[in-house]
Structure prediction request, 505 residues.
Amino acid sequence: MKLRKVTAASAAVFALALTATACGGDDGNDSGSSSGGGDKIKIGIKYDQPGLGLKEPGGSFSGFDVDVATYVAKELGYEADQIEWVETKSADRENALARGDVKFIAATYSITDERAEKVDFAGPYLLAHQDLLVKKDADVTEATDLNDKKLCSVTGSTSAQNVKKDFAPKAQLRERGTYSECIAALQSGAVDALTTDDSILAGFAAQDQYKGQFKLVGLKLSNENYGIGVKKGDTETVNKINDALEKMVGDKSWDKAVEANFGPAEYNNEPAPKIGNIVK
Amino acid sequence: MFDFISDYDDPTLLGAFWVTVQLTVFSGIGSLVWGTLLAAMRVSPVPLMRWFGTAYVNIVRNIPLTVIIVFTSLGLADIFGVTMGARDDFELQGFRLAVLGLIAYTAAFVCEALRSGINTVPVGQAEAARAIGLNFTQVLTLIVLPQAFRAVIGPLANVLIALTKNTTVAAAIGVAEAALLMKEMIENEAQTLLIGAVFAFGFVVLTLPTGLILGWLSKRLAVKR
Prediction:
């Protein structure tokens, strides 16, 4: 008898799940949504980059990308509780926009020509540079020759490729699955430096468990213009987001967000970029 | 459509797959040797050896390969300083560590395949060998294992195909094989499906002949009973 109850219950749950996914298919017009009674907006972010886009253990989200996206959503007419965060990993960003899974993406999305063929970009909203993160007491100061250094970066990332092709073809590059694994190698002394965008490095260095252990060298090895990705051809949304970004810089919210997320890392960030001004 | 492939010269597409082939060959030979030793331990008359073989297989077989490979680099190399004679050459170090991890993992499966082969050899064979005065090592190497190997070419082909595909996990510690090049291409080109298809095809080209040749061999060499 008990078994039959369980079966009935699970069938009900299954049916519910089916209907729930069925109404996820339309443009978010579910009647049973938040207390605001309005629509939801889906925004793509990273879940694993402290300081930029991080899913906290408690289920909340933090980071500069998250703050920018929240501000932009507000300008588009969505309160914070109407935002549905979606994880968009690097390799999945273009497809998520093309399929319409998310309205826009703010996930350390560097504007490049190849990507601009597939998606439209608003912004840029932050100019980052590839840099090195070293131990606090390391004596790497200016642009030293990286060729005799041991570096660590994430497998296949633009930063790793830059090292192999341009900056230091002879350097020993250790490629790892995540930045956290690189930090472990840096702590144990297996590598001299961790290299990627300074914004990401600052986010890691600002984390509680690493506070005061590492420093940014301040090399400007590349220009990474972080933009907000929007579905190709959706010019209306691009314009709205650009207006929102301008407003964010104008009312100093942009500076506050930078300070809140990168403050502890002594990150000398670039001033807010002008909309459409992509630094090659 | 495929013109972006020629933009990659270090490594080229073929070069990356060549590393995949090298990983497969070295790990294949190593795991065949180590797996055979393990199988010998599991059927040996010494309880300690039997215990070790059983414990090894049951532990290693149940750890995800990613965990093993990442441990070789994060644990062995970074923390314990086991750098396989390539302390200052990360490329070589990563390759050797990956081969080590793949051997450790694949050997457990080779051992189990072989043990099932040993079970196909009639008990009478081993008893007859004992009766003419051969010792355990001789019984195993001269009588039992040759027949066992011929019986398990099919299952071993499966293990080899799985190994070929498992080499992609080496990308996690930065070995420049096919999967790592795929990650780089996806990062730059924003063409996930097309690039994925190219690499999937590459692996089929590698594994399909392996399966066909070994399938034919297993039919030819099977012990007719």
